[in-house]
């Protein structure tokens, strides 16, 4: 049995390895090729277990690949929410089944909460405050990393659960490393400030300027813009900045496509 610090170190190494293998999928995703991104993750899933890989790492990978693939499928099914709901609920059963392996089990508990808060935020399933707190209590501290708080912060903002956003801000401050993109910290901090009704134009502009891809722009328009409009803090300056960020993201996406074509040539 690993001690907590050993499990945390194990998770970090497993994530680094997995992220390297998912680079191609994220390249597709950033360019807006969501179906290709999901297919690439399915290819990685089909390869499991890899030769010489422990059962713990294989289970860890399967959980994370499935969770990320659900997100990619969601992006490709925006016009078919019921179709996505059926797919997601089927794939999401993996988060309800105990793995029996300590390292994978901790990841499962964290992904279970990320899955249900994401489904609730998309308006496809319900996650009450009571259910949220019960599932949160099951997640070990070492599994509450920046990825975890990034995903549940939207639910926390919409449901005004300030204590969860405070924990997310604290975690993002403690994990300010080269592996944590600035946009993640800025997103969490902006949501925290919105719930406290303290957001400034600078807070919003800082996050907009950190957005790099079309999916990030779309997520902002869908989830954060309505909250800002509700508070009356959205203005023409912010709209111009968002439009400019969208134009730059589209240009980056086009460059990704050209680079892909050049490599295939």
Structure description:
With 265 residues, the protein is mainly α. The chain has a domain at 1-122. It has 13 helices and no strands. It has helices spanning 4-21, 23-30, 34-46, 55-76, 81-91, 102-121, 129-138, 146-158, 162-174, 182-195, 201-210, 214-231, 236-264. Helix 2 packs antiparallel against helix 3, helix 4 runs parallel beside helix 6 and helix 9 packs antiparallel against helix 10. The chain is globular, with a radius of gyration of 19 Å.
Give the topology, please.
Elements: H1 4-21, H2 23-30, H3 34-46, H4 55-76, H5 81-91, H6 102-121, H7 129-138, H8 146-158, H9 162-174, H10 182-195, H11 201-210, H12 214-231, H13 236-264
Helix pairs in contact: 2-3, 3-4, 4-5, 4-6, 6-7, 6-8, 8-9, 8-10, 9-10, 10-11, 11-13
Approximate shape: globular
- The helicity comes to over 70%
Uncertain segments: 254-265
How many helices does DSSP assign? Answer: 13
Order of helices and strands: HHHHHHHHHHHHH
Percent of residues in beta strands? under 5%
> What is the typical, i.e. mean, pLDDT?
88
Q: Find the count of extended strands (DSSP E, 2+ residues).
A: 0
Main β-sheet description: none
Rg from C-alpha positions? 19 Å
Structural class: mainly alpha
Question: What is the terminal-to-terminal distance?
Answer: 50 Å
Descriptive terms for the model:
265 residues, disordered C terminus
In short:
The protein is mostly helical and 265 residues long. 75% of the residues lie in helices and 0% in strands.
């Amino acid at each position: 049995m690993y001690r907590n610090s050993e499990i945390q170190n194990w998770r970090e190494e497993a994530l680094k390895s997995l992220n390297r293998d998912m680079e191609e999928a994220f390249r597709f995703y950033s360019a807006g090729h969501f179906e290709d991104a999901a297919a690439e993750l399915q290819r990685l899933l089909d390869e499991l277990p890899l030769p010489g890989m422990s059962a713990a790492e294989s289970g860890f990978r399967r959980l994370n690949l499935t969770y990320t693939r659900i997100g990619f499928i969601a992006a490709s099914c925006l016009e078919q929410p019921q179709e996505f709901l059926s797919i997601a609920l089927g794939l999401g059963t993996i988060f309800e089944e105990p793995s029996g392996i300590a390292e994978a089990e901790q990841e499962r508990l964290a992904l279970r909460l990320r899955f249900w808060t994401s489904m609730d935020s998309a308006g496809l399933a319900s996650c009450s405050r009571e259910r949220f707190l019960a599932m949160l209590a099951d997640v070990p501290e070492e599994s509450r990393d920046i990825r975890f708080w990034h995903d549940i912060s939207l639910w926390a903002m919409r449901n005004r659960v300030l204590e969860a956003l405070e924990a997310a801000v604290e975690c993002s401050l403690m994990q300010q490393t080269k592996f944590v993109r600035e946009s993640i910290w800025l997103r969490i901090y902006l949501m925290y400030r919105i719930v406290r009704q303290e957001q400034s134009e600078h807070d919003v502009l800082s996050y907009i300027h950190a957005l790099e891809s079309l999916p990030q722009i779309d997520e902002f328009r869908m989830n954060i813009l309505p909250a800002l409009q509700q508070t009356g803090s959205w203005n023409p300056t912010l709209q111009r900045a968002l439009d400019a960020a969208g134009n730059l993201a589209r240009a980056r996406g086009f460059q990704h496509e050209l680079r892909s074509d050049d490599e295939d040539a």
